[in-house]
Structures are given as C-alpha cells and as structure tokens.
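Lab notebook page, bench 4
Experiment: in silico fold of construct C2
Operator: M.H.
Input chain length: 149 residues
Purpose: comparison with the prior construct
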Amino acid sequence: MSKKVQKTGYKKNLCRKCTGLCCRYAALPIETPEDWDDYDDIRWYLYHENIEVFLDEGDWYINIKNKCINLSETDYKCQIYDIRPRICRGYSDDNCDLTSDDDSSYEYELHFTSPGQMEEYMKIKFGPKVFDKLEKKKKKKKKKKKKKK
C-alpha cells in the first residue's frame, strides 16, 4: 500500500474520531488596530460572550465561538459534507484541532479572551493612564447633571 493511500485513510479516520472541533468557531480577519480607538473597539468585542481576538503571523482575527448549524449533535458529522463551503474543505490534518494537544498549541503572538486583558495591553501600549480620559469625561457629566438640578 502506498504512503499516499495510508495518509488519506488516516485523515478520514481522524475526522470520524472527532467531535467537530473545527466546526465550533469562526475566526475572521479584522483590520490591524492603529490607534487608541481601534484598540478600544477590540475591547468592546471582548465584552461579548464567546469572543476572542488574536494576532497570528502579523494578522489580527476575531474568533467567534459558535457551533456550525450543520454539525450533527448525534454523530458530529457534517450534514452538508458533499457541498460544504470552501473554508471547510480547506481543513487538513496539518492544522487539525483534534491533532493539537489543546488551544495553547496555536502559539498566537497575542491572544485576548477578556476585556481586562485588552485593558492591560492598552496600558502597556499607550501608558498607564490611558483610561483616565474616560473617567474625567464621566466626572464632568456628573457635575453637569448636579448643576442642572
């Protein structure tokens, strides 16, 4: 038996053993943040459930953890396998989530899973008082409301 045939069979067996790990998220490219407002927008993304943001090979992505509607709950097989989208067809055992030990194996340059992590990064990037301007605006609004009463 040739090595090519063995590898193909191995790939098919991997998918049969998997619970559809690659079908449980969508990672989409986002624009590279350039200023405070851009990073603050990313912080806003992270205030939403099941959202992560990461930097991989110089490119920024938003990762939305949400199961594909075509993944069967009973056998974890794709219900539209023969006509699955191009992105799905592009998965291989070289970058398979099943063959990875865990999520940490991705080795992202940066990986944010909470707004607090982004806030800490923004403090490093823009200085420790980066959020002071927001607090000053909040205090000014409170003073204006008190004067009106």
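Observations: The longest strand covers residues 51-56. The CA atoms of residues 24 and 67 lie 4 Å apart.
Next step: discuss at group meeting.
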